[in-house]
Write a structure and sequence with these properties.
- By secondary structure, the protein is α+β, with helices and mostly antiparallel strands.
- The protein is built from 13 helices and 17 strands.
- The chain has 2 domains: 10-174, Uridine Diphospho-n-acetylenolpyruvylglucosamine Reductase, domain 3 (2-Layer Sandwich); 178-323, Alpha-Beta Plaits (2-Layer Sandwich).
- The strands form 4 sheets. An 8-stranded antiparallel sheet has the order 13-10-12-11-15-16-14-17, sandwiched between helices. A 5-stranded antiparallel sheet has the order 3-4-8-6-7. A two-stranded parallel sheet has the order 1-2.
Length: 364
């Protein structure tokens, strides 16, 4: 489409993958390379997807956009903004060169996930290059075409271990009529209860972030609707430009909490799990009304134990050891039966095991 660089590198990518498969050469899939810190380190020949770019189709009336995987996330968001639309899951970029393929493969969502759901819920279709050089198409470009829908969704969060994303179709949504951010001083457990009560009442909360006894809550609705719900949440109203910068800093982890973290563990917990007291609480923050919590410390054992005790799991989201190929594991071990399923799926899509080997687990 006009204004977006177009280049089809399918043939080049197919040739490179087939050559690597025949020789058993591991490949490290690279888009914008802005999320290389996430997951285990991959030792392999770089397969660059960034040149495979361009928006292939966009119909604002149908709320669907289709783009090649190397298309910059910023270009997609700018195009949607022109038509008053957005990616509902508010993906973090972690750099100007972030691509739409990397966004889907990483499966990371920003503050708005609390209201709109994860990346996979918006993947309508995908064209995928398998590890043995096949080009497969799954799903469609409109919601009513659901053939293969689950397979295309499988690519979200797969970190490239199943295939090289070539093109992806995503559902988009209109931008809200009005947005308001409220800030107040409040302790963690009181904040969790306030947010739980607000959600139960159906308050239009599309972002929440708590740290150091300060809670920010973002509401999106009509202006009249915001007036009606504001009093029940409480707090001061932030100026629009201040609020915009705040949520961008949370989304991109430029907020002071993240910047000061020596290591960062993500805890996926039941939203009603209470926060710990003492020093550990000081090193924590939470989003998604409590369902996503961050622990800024170097030791992974304590993070995993805390998550299990609360009924969830922990991920080593960012740390020097993970980025440099150290021994620290990123994801918690899977039960043996589930790992068997993962290996079987990997074998179907990548028989030679050359695509991002070890990115999730050592033997995947």
């Amino acid at each position: 489409m006009s204004g977006t660089p177009q280049f089809d590198a399918t043939d080049t990518l197919v040739e490179a993958v087939r050559a690597a498969s025949s020789q058993g050469t591991p490949l490290r899939i690279v888009g914008g390379d802005t999320k290389s810190f996430y997951g285990r380190h991959v030792h392999g020949l770089a397969l660059h997807v960034g040149d495979h770019r361009g928006v292939l189709a966009y119909d604002p009336a149908e709320l669907v956009i289709t783009a090649r995987a190397g298309t910059r996330l910023a270009d997609v968001e700018a195009l949607l903004l022109q038509h008053g639309q957005r990616l509902p899951f508010e993906p973090p970029a972690f750099g100007d060169e972030a691509t739409i393929g990397g966004t889907v493969a990483a499966g990371l969502a920003g503050p708005a996930r609390v209201a709109y759901g994860p990346v996979r819920d918006y993947v309508l279709g995908a064209r995928v290059l398998t590890g043995d050089g096949r080009v497969l198409r799954f799903g469609g470009e409109v919601m009513k075409n659901v053939a293969g829908y689950d397979v295309s969704r499988l690519m979200a969060g797969s970190l490239g271990i199943l295939g090289v994303l070539l093109d992806v179709s995503l559902k988009v949504l209109p931008r809200p009529a009005a947005t308001r951010t409220l800030r107040q001083q409040i302790d963690a457990n009181t904040a969790l209860k306030l947010l739980a009560d607000a959600t139960q009442r159906g308050a239009p909360v599309t972002g929440s972030f708590w740290h150091a006894n300060e809670l920010h809550v973002r509401l999106e609705a009509s202006p009249a609707g915001l007036d009606a719900v504001q009093a029940s949440i409480g707090g001061e109203v932030l100026a629009d430009d201040t609020a915009t910068r705040f949520w961008q800093d949370v989304r991109e982890q430029r907020h002071a909490y993240f910047a000061a973290a020596p290591a960062l563990h993500r805890l996926s917990l039941p939203a009603n799990a209470t926060m710990p007291s003492g020093d550990r609480s000081i090193r924590m923050a939470f989003e998604w009304n409590g369902a996503q919590r961050w622990l800024a410390e170097a030791g992974s054992t304590g993070a995993a134990a805390m998550a299990r005790e609360a009924g969830g799991h922990a991920t080593l989201f960012r740390a020097e050891a993970a980025a440099s190929g150290g021994k620290a594991e990123v994801f918690e071990p899977l039960p043996s039966a589930l790992m068997t399923v993962h290996r079987a799926v990997k074998k179907v899509f990548d028989p030679a095991g050359i695509l991002n080997p070890g990115r999730m687990y050592p033997d995947l």
